[in-house]
């Protein structure tokens, strides 16, 4: 007879006991010191939080596919909109094992910086992240043992993609309520962090230490939007709005845009706003009233989501009225997720009243974001998928290490039932390919002159 050391409700009681407490992640022992010693999370959680079989008492097993027929067994592990998608729209989710080796949940250099710089970050009197000696942040998660909502949020704000720079070649499909594709776009999303740089001699991009990042979005197809580009310049001071300029081919010039209008579709038919990016698309302190409202296990798409079997890394699709609404997705049981709420205090005319961000305690990356309208009704879901880019004997490399990055996003406006699903693909129209830590990216993509040149 197998005698369980912890009964089934042990974890639930433990999370309830931590509610409102200024404590870090981990149930049986603090998580991050364990990671720093061994890189394995196993001893931090009881079996029921590391095994979908144990959590569901055998109702769901690794390798099973969640459908409308069995979704009730994991309803409490899904976001409300993901549950609705499975129950009502034919979405399917494959269950894979829980990742226990933390090195499979980070870019290697970013994890090394997180370990090395742990304990060096503070929030100053304004709420900005600095080092203890008052300098800009030096790299990795500033608060790997986040104890408050704003600390958790800082981990996803300070470095979106967790590389020094990245060029994401993105293919987007926009699906209407009838399940048919109304629009399809190819675009490049380009990021360059100017502080907190990792794996290099200096954590700062010389001459840009007062900034946090530059970010460009460039549409390459179809022809009616080809050349449209927007450039955001983020300041280190998270109370400041970014500078936003754009190139519109029809006008053949770069013009400034109101920087606080961050809740509008980038192009016709898409449900994605600038505000949505990484669930932290606005400067952190233009949002406020951060609250860590809950800790609990959840299902999340953080592994086995790369598709090298397709020549352009595009995943199979399914579900919805025409079988085109959802990308195939693998999810695993995340033993501890921090649920953080925030309100848009800097945007009096925003259609969003609050957002609820779900953050994996193991690597402090967001695994989902729900926004609510001003009436408090569910508005949109922005749900990413991530993966280590390896499958069988196939690998994609970033420098000397296997690539870790996002693979796709479902952006679902549930009030209009419009879905934008987009994926990081190998390449897009215009000959642009995905990559990370690329020399010359700033000069090629992230100046007003660059977006004019690219658009023309």
From TrEMBL:
Cited PROSITE patterns: TAT (PS51318)
Record-linked InterPro entries: DUF1329, TAT_signal, TAT_signal_bac_arc
Protein name listed in UniProt: DUF1329 domain-containing protein
């Amino acid at each position: 007879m197998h005698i369980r050391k912890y009964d089934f409700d042990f974890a639930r009681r433990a999370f309830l006991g931590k509610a409102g407490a200024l404590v870090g992640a981990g149930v049986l022992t603090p998580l991050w010191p364990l990671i720093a010693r061994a890189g394995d999370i196993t001893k931090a959680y009881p079996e029921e939080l590391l095994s979908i079989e144990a959590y569901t008492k055998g109702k769901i097993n690794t390798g099973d596919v969640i459908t409308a027929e069995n979704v009730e067994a994991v309803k409490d592990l899904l976001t409300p909109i993901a549950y609705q998608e499975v129950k009502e729209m034919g979405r399917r989710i494959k269950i894979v094992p829980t990742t226990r080796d933390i090195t499979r949940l980070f870019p290697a250099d970013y994890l090394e910086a997180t370990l090395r710089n742990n304990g060096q970050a503070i929030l100053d009197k304004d709420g900005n992240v600095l080092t203890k000696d008052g300098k800009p942040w030096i790299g990795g998660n500033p608060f790997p043992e986040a104890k408050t909502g704003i600390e958790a949020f800082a981990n996803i704000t300070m470095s979106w993609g967790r590389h020094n720079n990245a060029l994401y070649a993105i293919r987007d499909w926009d699906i209407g309520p009838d399940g048919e594709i109304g629009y399809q776009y190819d675009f490049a999303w380009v990021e360059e962090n100017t502080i907190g740089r990792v794996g290099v001699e200096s954590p700062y991009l010389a001459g840009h230490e007062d900034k946090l990042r530059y970010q460009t979005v460039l549409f390459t197809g179809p022809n009616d939007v080809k050349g449209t580009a927007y450039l955001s310049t983020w300041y280190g001071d998270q109370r400041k709005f970014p500078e936003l300029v754009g190139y519109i081919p029809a006008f053949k010039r770069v013009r400034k845009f109101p920087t606080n209008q961050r809740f509008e579709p980038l192009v016709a038919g898409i449900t994605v706003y600038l505000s949505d990016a990484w669930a932290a698309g606005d400067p952190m302190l233009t949002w406020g009233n951060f609250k860590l409202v809950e800790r609990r296990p959840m299902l999340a798409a953080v592994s086995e989501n790369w598709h090298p079997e397709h020549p352009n890394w595009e995943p199979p699709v399914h579900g919805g009225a025409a079988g085109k609404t959802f990308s195939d997705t693998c999810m695993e049981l995340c033993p501890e997720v921090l649920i953080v709420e925030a309100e848009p205090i800097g945007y009096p005319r925003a259609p969003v009243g609050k957002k609820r961000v779900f953050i994996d305690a193991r690597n402090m990356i967001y695994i989902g974001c729900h926004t609510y309208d001003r009436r408090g009704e569910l508005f949109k879901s922005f749900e990413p998928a991530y993966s280590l880019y390896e499958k069988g004997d196939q690998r994609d490399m970033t420098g000397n290490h296997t690539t870790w990055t996002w693979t796709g996003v479902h952006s679902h406006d549930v009030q209009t039932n419009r879905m934008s699903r987009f994926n990081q693909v190998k390449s897009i129209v215009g000959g642009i390919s995905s990559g990370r830590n690329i020399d010359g990216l700033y000069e090629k993509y992230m100046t007003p002159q660059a977006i004019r040149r690219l658009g023309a």
